[in-house]
Amino acid sequence: MHDTVALGANVRIGEFAVVGENVVLGDDCEIAAHAIVRAGCRIGKGVSIDSFAVIGGPAQMRVRTPSTGHVRIGDRTVVREGVTINLPTKENGVTEVGADCLLMANSHIGHDSSLQDGVTLANNVMLAGHVHVGRSAFLGGGAGVHQFVRVGPGAIVGGNASMSYDVAPYVMAVERNEIRGLNVVGLRRMNCATADLADLKRCFHAVFCGTGNVRNRAAEALASGQFGTGNLGRTFLEFFATGKRGFAQVRSHGSPDAESS
Question: What is the spatial distance between Cα 38 and Cα 102, in angstroms, rounded to a whole number?
Answer without folding.
Answer: 20
